[in-house]
Each structure stands twice: as structure tokens, then as C-alpha cells.
Amino acid sequence: MIWLWGSLALWAAATALNVALAGSSLARSRMVRLLIPALFGVTLLVLWEGLVRGLEVSPVILPPPSAIGARIAADLPLLWTDFVQTILKGALPGYAIGCGAAILTAILIDRSPFLQRGLLPVGNFVAALPVVGIAPILVMWFGFDWQSKAAVVVVMVFFPVLVNMVAGLAATDRMQRDLMATWSAGYWQALIKLRLPAALPFLFNGLKIATTLALIGAIVAEFFGSPTRGMGFRISTAVGQLALDLVWAEIAVAALAGSAFYGLVALVERGLTFWHPSQRARV
């Protein structure tokens, strides 16, 4: 019970500190903005550890963070192999292909009202298909290696990016387009100098959504067939062996990779859309 009460006391103290920092004059400083979520995450791990140990929860049901950390340290080569197979070979190529194809398709749709009326409804239909339904089909089409996982990722990220890009290309108002026309700007000049920059906030919204979808698609696709490596394969086999610490280790690696990927896209967005009011408000 010492673990339980100690973790609850630490949680209460950290919550009070977070509230005090958030309400202080230092709340807008960069260090405090990074400290508050870090402190919250550490206290959450301590609370998890204390509850599991204090309530004597079986590690088969929920292992403590210390056991998960020990498993990560002991199986780093295995986790790295799974990371390379799932993230670097499956998620990233599928993300790049799907997002690139979505941007090019959005430009084609913008040029053709027929495609806008015909392709977008089909896109909404395909986007509503469950990944557990299309993943087995794509695994049968493209094989059990990373190519089928990349194909699943392409399907999952294509339409969110497409919809956001189409909305972004339509974001400029009539006066701005007329001004470009008075300067004798052609379609491609107006696209590059006016409409693509205006579409960047919409595009990055889609790209950030696609970062998480890419990881989910690559991992779930491995449940339906993969070589003897990969995060999804490892999770499915470890659950059957009741090695829940390994399952949580894979989940932790996937969460860290997804957060880093999202943060990288957000950093690029901040550098390219510094002029947008949403970015200026964060300074």
C-alpha cells in the first residue's frame, strides 16, 4: 500500500504544480510549455507503477512501467528490427506515396470539375472502409512483406490528405484570384504563387492526421500476414504467449515513433506557414 499512497500523493503534488505553472506569468515561456506535459507524463507513469504494485495487479493483465522499461532495454535489437520492418519499410514509403499521390490528384481535381464531382464521393466511400477489411485483400495482392503494408498505408492516408488539399486549393477568395488574373498570371503561376501557399495550412492538417493513420495501418496490416518480424506480428505472437511486457514495449516504441513523426511534420508546418495566424498565435 506504500506504493499506492505514495503515487497518489505524488500525483496530487504534481497536479498542483501544473496548475500553478499554468496560471503563472511563466506559462508562455518555452521551457514551461515543455515542462508541464513532461511532468504530467512522469507522474502518470509513477501513478501507474504505484497502482499496479499497490493493488498487486498481475503482470499478465497490466505490467508496471518498470517491467516494460526493462523489457525494452533487454530486447533493443528485436525492437529495432521490428521498427525497421514496420515503420521504415512499411509506414514511411506508404505515407510518402499516398500523400504525394493525394496532392497530385487534388491538383487534377481542381482542374477538372468532372473529377471533383465523381472522384470525391468515391473517395469518401473508400475512406469509410475498415482497415481490417482491406488489409487481408492487399496482403494477398502484394505479398506478405513490407509492400502490402505500404499499400494499406497508401489507402489510409490518401483520402484525408486529398480532402484537405482540395479544400485548401479552394481557400483563396475571388478578389485574390482576380488580382492574379489582372497581372496576366496563368493557371500554374497562380497555383504556385497564390493557391499552393494558401493551401499549406489545410495540407498540413491532412499530413498530421496521416502520420497516425500510417502507423496504425502498417501495424494492423501485419496482423493478417507478415514475415517473422514487425510490430504487428510481434504483438500478435506475444499476446498468444502472454508476454504482455513485450506487447507494451512494442506499443511504447510505436507511440514514441508516432509522436516523433507528428512532431517533425508540425515543425515543418511551423517553418513553412509562419505567416498564418494560427502559427503567430503560438509565438
TrEMBL record:
Q: Name one GO biological process term.
A: transmembrane transport
What GO CC annotations are associated with the protein? plasma membrane
- What membrane topology does the annotation report for this chain? Multi-pass membrane protein
Q: Which domain of life is it from?
A: Bacteria
Q: Which Pfam families match?
A: BPD_transp_1
Q: Where is the ABC transmembrane type-1 domain?
A: 101-272
Q: Which UniProt keywords apply?
A: Cell membrane, Membrane, Transmembrane, Transmembrane helix, Transport
Name the residues that span the membrane.
32-48, 92-110, 122-144, 150-171, 202-226, 246-268
Task: Name its cellular compartments.
Answer: Cell membrane
The name this protein goes by in its record: ABC transporter permease subunit
Source organism of this protein record: Frigidibacter albus
